[in-house]
Design a protein that fits this description.
Layout: H1 2-26, H2 51-62, H3 68-76, E1 87-91, H4 93-96, E2 112-116, H5 122-132, E3 140-143, H6 147-151, H7 159-175, E4 179-183, H8 199-217, E5 220-222, H9 224-228, H10 248-266
């Protein structure tokens, strides 16, 4: 029995010697590089925000409707004098950029108050409507809103949502004995700050609703769009440098239209 056992041990030793290189090859050694996961792909860096953009973001965070913008001016404004036909213009940058009483302004010497805020959407205007319109006790409010809704300045919005906000502001005005002038949204073929949204057709649809709503409720409708559009339903270079905001030539078209609308509202 001893010889077979020795033979078996010898065979086992030979087999172990043959397998040893393979076993060693499967174990990692300090000389072999470790396999590492590929580095994460970095997204392209967004361009740094300008000082205006940083300030705007901070303002939205701390005072979303920007009630502070006109708060002090509202508090300092005296009540209307007897017989004063005070008019408040509520809107966005198109309204804010309109010169009222400067030497080159459109309404020098008239009791018209500008409460436009650049970049604003209709929900922001609705929040500040009581402070910046109702409490100023105007006889008429001129309401121009919707461009920035379509641009998505405060997030995506449907036309129905814009229409609801316009209707709510008009309802608030009527409940407080303020006559309403609803203005069409100005034409725009594209937005420089948010291109590719096809605003022209959406503006046409919104204006169709505004005109119909004004007729239904007995409000005055001022149609800037028809008087200012080009063949693409955009704002032509003769009236705007960026296709959205009017130049003095653009405001010169708008002024007599809104004056006629205010006159009609005061006559109601």
């Amino acid at each position: 029995m001893e010889m077979p056992l020795r033979a078996g041990r010898l065979a086992a030793a030979i087999l172990a010697a043959l397998l040893a290189p393979a076993l060693v090859a499967q174990e990692p050694t300090g000389s072999l590089p470790e396999t590492k996961a590929p580095p994460p792909v970095k997204n392209a860096q967004e361009p740094p925000m300008s000082a205006w953009e940083r300030a705007h973001q901070e303002q939205l965070r701390t005072d979303w409707p920007w009630l502070a913008k006109y708060k002090d001016a509202d508090l300092k404004l005296a009540a209307p004098a007897p017989g004063e036909n005070r008019v408040v213009f509520m809107g966005d940058s198109i309204t804010e950029g309109w010169k009222f009483d400067a030497p080159e302004g459109s309404f020098a010497g008239k009791p018209y108050i500008n409460r436009g805020i650049s970049g604003q959407t209709s929900p922001q205007m609705l929040v500040r409507f009581r402070q910046d319109v109702i409490e100023l006790q105007p006889k008429v409010v001129v309401l121009l809103a919707g461009t920035n809704d379509i641009a998505g300045n405060t997030g995506p919005m449907t036309l129905d949502q814009t229409e609801d906000n316009l209707a709510s502001m008009a309802d608030l005005a009527t409940a407080n004995h303020i006559r309403v002038v609803l203005c069409s949204v100005l034409p725009a073929y594209d937005f420089p700050w948010h291109p590719g949204l096809d605003p022209a057709s959406k503006i046409v649809a919104l204006n169709t609703w505004i005109k119909s709503f004004a007729a239904e409720k007995g409000y005055v409708y001022v149609d800037y769009h028809s008087a200012m559009k080009d063949q693409r339903d955009g704002l032509p270079p003769s009236l705007s440098k960026d296709g959205v905001h009017p130049t003095p030539a653009g405001y010169a078209v708008m002024a007599p239209l809104v004056e006629a609308g205010i006159k009609s509202a005061l006559a109601q």
